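Anyone up for a design puzzle?
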C-alpha cells in the first residue's frame, strides 16, 4: 500500500475490528514483517484497543505488544485489550516487566524470527522513568498460522539489543544493536537518554537465517568477538538505525534524537556495515500532529511503491491529549525517494593540469582520526582546477592501527571494489591515485582500520586547457642512486633531457623509490625554484624499500627537487611527460581487472598477463593502474610493462608477507595488453584508474 493509502487506514480507530473484536485505536513503534504468502505482520509496542478515539480507559484497553495482519486491504487483530499480549503474555507483569518487538526476518528453519526487548521498571510505572531493557529475546512464529512456536532468550541476550533491526545479504543475516535506554534520567528533555549508549548503533551477524547461533561482531573493518565490538555509527543524542535492503543498496532511516529531534535521516550504503553516507534529510517539526506532540521511531516499510520508499514514524504527545484523541497516537506514512548510487560514465578526452603539491586534508589537525569502517569526505574545491572532473592525489595512511586498506572514489558513486593503499600497523604508507570527482569536486575515502589520513593534490583532470601524456620507456634520472642527507634537498636534472622531455613539457611523471632505508622517514618531490610544499610523496621505514609514483610540474629551472627527512639513497625513474600535444585521458571509477587470489598464487618471476578488456578504450597507449601484491614470500621488485616490450618499469617493491600497493604509469602493447611480474611469489591485484 502507498503512504497515502496507509494514512487513510490509520486515520480512523478500530483498525482490524470485526464481530466481537475490538480494533486498534492507537499504537507506536510499528514494525512490519513480510510473510512468504504475501501478507504482512505488523507488531507494535503499547497497543490501545478501541473502536473510537477515546482512550481514557486506556490501561484496561491496552497490551504491551500486539499486532495486525495485513492481507491486501484487509486487516485483522493479533492480541487484544486487557493485556492480551501477542508474545510473552504469560511472562508479563503489566507496567513492571514486559516485551517490546524489534526487528525480524524469516529463518533458515522456515519460521519468522522476531527479536524482542525485555523491559523492566522497578517503579511499576511502565514506559516512564525507571524503565530499561534488561535482555534480548527472540520469538519463532509460524508464518502461515502466526502461532508463536517458541519464545526464549536470544543467543546474544544482552541489553545491547542486537536485533533492533535485521537485514540479510546472500550469506549472512545482520543484527543491528541499539541500547534503547530512553527513560534513564528523570527529566523532560533529551537529557533523559543514556548518553553513554543512545548515540550508538552496533552490528553483529550470523550465517543467513541462523538466528539460533551466537553472532560475531563488527569491530570496525572486520568481525570478531563481543568484547571487541565497536559502534557502527555514532550520531546525535539517539541514533536508532532501521535498515532495509533494496537490490544492491542498503537503506537506513533514523529519527534522530528520537522524541526530541527535528529530522528524519535517510542513509545509504553498499554493504550492511557501510560505509554509510547521508542521502537525504527531512525536517519534520511541521508534520507533528499537534504543537506539543512528538515524532519518533522511523521505520522503512519492506516494499517499494512506484519505486519509492514508504517511511513510517510514530506519533505521541502528553498522555492527557492522546488518551482523549487516539489519532495523536497512530503512526504516519510518507513517500521518500529510494537512494541510489550515481553512475558516472567514463569521461574521455581529458587533459591534465599539474600543480605544486598542496595539502587538502590532514585528520591529525584537527584530531579527526578515521575509525575503521568509516568514510571521510574530502573537499578539493580550491585545490583543483575550477573545471576539474578528476584529481591526481597522494594518499597517506598515518599510524594505522593494523592491517587494512584505503579506497578513494567520487562521493555519491558506489564505493568500488578497488583499493588505493594497504596498511601495516604503525607504518605510515603513501600511494598515488587518479580519482574521478563528484560535481562538488569531492572525493570520498574509506578506511578499513583506524588511521589518520593525509590527502595531497598534485593535479587536475579537465576537459580543456590541460596537457596530454607522452609515455616513455623508463629512464633513470638518478644514476645508480642519489644520496640525500637528513633534512636535505637534492636536485634531479630533467631540463637537459631534450631527447626525452622537450622544453614545452609542463610536467613529468616519475617513479621515486628508496632502497634499504636505515630509519623511518619521508620524501617530498616538487619543482626546483619554488617553495617546498607541506606535502609528502613517499613514506618509508627502516629496512623496507618502497616506491611511489608522482606527477610533478616543471618549474623554470626544469629540475626536480627531492627532500628527505632522514639520510636516504633515492632513485628517480622518468616514465612520462605532459604537453598540449599528448594523448588525452579517459577517467572512470577504479575497476578491478585481475585478482589472482581467485586461483593459484603466481610463483617468483612468473609473468601475469592482465586482461584489461573495456577498462581501457580501444587503441589505448598507456594506463595508470594500482598494482597490489598480496602475501609476498619475500622482498623484491614488482614490474609492469607492455607485453610486447621489455620488463623494465619498477612499479613497487614487495615486502615479505606485507600487502602493498603501488600506482604506476605503464605503456600498453598494440593489443592493449599489460604484463606484471613479481620477483617473489605473490598474488597480484590490478585496479585500472585511467587510460590514455
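Challenge accepted. My sequence:
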Amino acid at each position: 500500500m502507498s503512504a497515502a493509502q496507509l494514512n487513510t487506514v490509520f486515520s480512523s480507530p478500530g483498525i482490524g475490528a470485526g464481530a466481537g473484536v475490538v480494533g486498534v485505536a492507537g499504537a507506536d513503534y510499528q514494525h512490519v514483517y513480510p510473510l512468504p504468502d504475501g501478507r504482512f505482520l505488523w507488531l507494535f509496542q503499547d497497543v490501545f484497543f478501541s473502536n473510537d478515539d477515546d482512550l481514557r480507559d486506556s490501561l484496561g484497553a491496552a497490551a504491551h505488544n500486539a499486532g495486525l495482519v495485513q492481507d491486501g486491504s484487509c486487516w485483522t487483530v493479533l492480541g487484544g485489550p486487557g493485556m492480551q499480549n501477542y508474545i510473552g503474555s504469560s511472562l508479563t507483569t503489566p507496567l513492571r516487566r514486559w516485551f517490546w518487538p524489534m526487528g525480524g526476518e524469516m529463518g533458515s528453519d522456515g519460521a519468522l524470527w522476531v527479536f524482542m526487548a525485555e523491559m523492566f521498571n522497578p517503579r511499576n510505572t511502565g514506559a516512564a522513568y525507571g524503565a530499561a531493557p534488561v535482555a534480548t529475546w527472540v520469538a519463532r512464529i509460524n508464518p502461515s498460522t502466526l502461532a508463536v512456536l517458541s519464545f526464549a532468550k536470544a543467543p546474544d541476550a544482552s541489553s545491547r539489543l542486537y536485533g533492533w533491526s535485521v537485514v540479510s545479504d546472500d550469506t549472512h543475516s545482520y543484527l543491528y544493536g541499539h541500547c534503547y535506554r530512553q527513560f534513564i534520567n528523570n527529566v523532560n528533555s533529551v537529557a533523559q537518554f543514556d548518553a553513554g549508549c543512545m548515540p550508538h548503533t552496533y552490528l553483529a551477524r550470523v550465517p543467513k537465517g541462523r538466528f539460533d547461533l551466537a553472532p560475531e561482531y563488527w569491530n570496525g573493518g572486520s568481525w570478531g568477538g563481543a568484547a571487541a565490538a565497536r559502534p557502527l555509527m555514532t550520531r546525535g543524542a539517539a541514533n536508532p538505525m532501521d535498515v532495509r535492503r533494496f537490490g544492491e543498496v542498503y537503506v537506513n532511516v533514523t529519527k534522530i534524537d528520537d522524541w526530541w529531534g527535528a529530522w528524519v535521516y535517510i542513509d545509504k550504503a553498499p554493504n550492511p556495515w557501510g560505509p554509510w553516507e547521508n542521502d537525504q534529510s527531512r525536517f519534520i517539526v511541521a508534520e507533528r500532529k499537534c504543537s506539543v506532540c512528538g515524532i519518533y521511531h522511523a521505520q522503512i516499510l519492506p516494499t517499494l511503491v512506484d519505486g519509492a520508499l514508504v517511511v513510517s514514524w510514530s506519533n505521541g504527545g502528553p498522555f492527557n491529549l492522546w488518551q482523549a484523541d487516539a489519532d495523536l497516537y497512530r503512526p504516519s506514512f510518507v513517500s521518500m525517494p529510494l537512494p541510489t548510487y550515481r553512475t558516472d560514465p567514463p569521461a574521455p578526452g581529458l587533459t591534465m593540469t599539474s600543480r605544486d603539491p598542496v595539502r587538502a586534508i590532514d585528520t591529525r589537525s584537527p584530531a579527526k582520526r578515521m575509525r575503521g569502517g568509516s568514510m571521510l569526505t574530502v573537499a578539493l574545491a580550491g585545490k583543483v582546477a575550477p573545471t576539474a572532473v578528476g584529481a591526481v592525489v597522494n594518499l597517506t595512511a598515518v599510524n594505522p592501527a593494523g592491517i587494512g586498506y584505503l579506497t578513494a572514489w567520487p562521493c555519491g558513486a558506489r564505493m568500488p571494489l578497488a583499493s588505493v593503499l594497504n596498511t601495516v600497523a604503525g607504518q605510515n604508507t603513501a600511494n598515488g591515485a587518479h580519482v574521478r570527482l563528484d560535481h562538488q569536486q569531492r572525493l570520498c575515502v574509506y578506511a578499513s582500520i583506524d588511521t589518520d589520513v593525509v590527502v595531497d593534490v598534485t593535479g587536475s583532470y579537465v576537459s580543456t586547457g590541460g596537457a596530454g601524456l607522452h609515455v616513455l620507456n623508463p629512464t633513470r634520472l638518478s644514476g645508480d642512486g642519489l644520496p640525500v642527507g637528513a633534512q636535505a634537498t637534492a636536485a634531479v636534472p630533467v631540463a637537459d633531457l631534450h631527447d626525452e622531455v622537450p622544453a614545452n613539457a609542463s610536467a613529468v611523471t616519475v617513479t621515486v623509490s628508496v632502497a634499504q632505508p636505515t630509519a623511518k622517514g619521508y620524501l617530498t618531490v616538487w619543482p626546483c625554484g619554488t617553495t617546498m610544499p607541506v606535502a609528502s610523496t613517499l613514506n618509508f621505514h627502516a629496512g623496507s624499500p618502497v616506491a611511489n609514483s608522482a606527477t610533478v610540474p616543471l618549474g623554470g629551472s626544469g629540475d626536480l627537487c627531492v627532500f628527505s627527512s632522514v639520510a636516504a639513497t633515492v632513485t628517480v625513474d622518468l616514465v612520462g611527460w605532459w604537453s598540449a600535444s599528448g594523448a588525452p585521458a579517459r577517467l572512470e571509477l577504479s575497476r578491478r581487472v585481475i585478482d589472482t587470489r581467485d586461483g593459484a598464487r603466481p610463483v617468483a618471476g612468473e609473468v601475469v598477463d592482465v586482461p584489461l578488456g573495456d577498462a581501457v578504450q580501444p587503441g589505448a597507449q598507456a594506463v595508470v593502474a594500482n598494482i597490489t601484491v598480496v602475501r609476498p614470500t619475500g622482498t623484491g621488485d614488482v614490474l609492469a610493462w607492455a607485453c610486447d616490450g621489455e620488463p623494465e618499469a619498477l612499479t613497487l617493491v614487495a615486502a615479505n608477507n606485507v600487502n602493498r600497493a603501488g600506482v604506476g604509469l605503464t605503456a600498453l602493447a598494440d593489443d592493449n595488453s599489460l604484463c606484471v611480474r613479481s620477483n617473489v611469489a605473490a598474488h597480484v591485484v590490478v585496479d585500472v584508474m585511467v587510460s590514455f
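A detail worth pointing out: The chain has three domains: 3-244, 347-579, 591-691.
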